[in-house]
């Protein structure tokens, strides 16, 4: 059950005390000089560090789309820290044509008709400034957030206690303070409505909407750079008969151990079977044993490769050169690598989850195995089918432009 947290009401007092400073008065004057409606976009996490995760690829892609919007919106990226309330980011951040004039470091001073959009996932920060957001809303500002998933709420055993606690505070904020919760899949939207309907909070619940994400890696301001080891892996992939690619942070929910068990069984049955497995993703929480297993794997450098700091340039090359993507996750909010692989025309084998069924793509196959042996059989059947080929049925996928249009429609609706 979601509990209404109000531990950070002092942020209202801090924000109002800021009114007494010359810095705040200067920000008000500069805001009035700019004129027009402002869309304040929270980029707190990626502003401090781009970890190259799927969510941060989404943030970059949507931010670039927002910068292309025509009309009278002035885009203002903002950030907060644990000790500093929301301030404006410098205009050199992910530069776009409709950024506000350089107000770097100025406090956020919105007015009626403006919108605050929680684009970045800042579960550890946003609830700290509940009071500041309430003050904004009292001034006529609307608040919206992107809801990427509800996984720490539904699967707390797969996350750290700290992450679960932060997420529950953030979810309480969403359910009690936010005007619009914009979900990235129908599955997440449906689950959020279920949680909201069971919430005992007396505050107005948010309007729940959804957008469909794109999968074009080149439209997400991809990071660049290839190391010597990256080139070695790419060369090995190019020489292999079939390379299975897995993409995502190494953490329990992604079920990498399950996939490795299946691949180990396949390799043990045929020691000369020329099929590689490449795992791309940062080391995450509760992953020490999995990382140790990968580092000491007997097939490492032969038929198994691990990249824990790959750039988007490297990921792009891997998508192009690999033969298919395996997605063994126990649950997902969307599953960006699935959409990305399909956009490259690659076949995908994914666990049979409702969120993946939403894509309804002919290149997407499913498995529902609960043990390594049956999963290994599903992988072998999938590889055999992929190698046999046959006539491919092409189906267009949603683009990042489509996602931007849907987001714009939602934002415009909020002002009506």
Description:
The chain is of the alpha/beta class and 416 residues long. The protein is built from 16 helices and 13 strands. Strand 9, helix 11 and strand 10 form a beta-alpha-beta unit. The longest helix is centred in the middle third of the chain and has 17 residues, at 161-177. The protein is elongated. It starts with 9 loop residues before the first helix and ends with a helix. Residues 1-9 and 96-102 have low confidence and may be disordered.
Measure the end-to-end span: 33 Å
Average pLDDT, rounded to a whole number, is 87
Largest sheet: 7 strands, mixed
* β-strand amount: 5-15%
Work out the helix count. 16
What is the ordering of alpha helices and beta strands? HHEHHEEEHEHHEHEHEHEHEHEHEHEHH
Brief characterization of the structure:
Helix content is 41%, strand content 15%.
Which SSEs are present, and which pair or pack?
Elements: H1 10-18, H2 22-34, E1 37-42, H3 44-48, H4 54-67, E2 73-79, E3 87-88, E4 115-118, H5 130-138, E5 142-147, H6 151-154, H7 161-177, E6 180-183, H8 186-198, E7 207-210, H9 228-239, E8 242-247, H10 256-269, E9 275-280, H11 288-295, E10 304-307, H12 312-321, E11 324-327, H13 336-343, E12 348-351, H14 354-357, E13 364-367, H15 372-388, H16 400-414
Parallel strand pairs: 1-2, 1-4, 4-5, 5-6, 6-7, 8-9, 8-11, 9-10, 11-12, 12-13
Antiparallel strand pairs: 2-3
Labels describing this entry:
416 residues; alpha/beta; 7-stranded mixed β-sheet; 16 helices; 41% helix
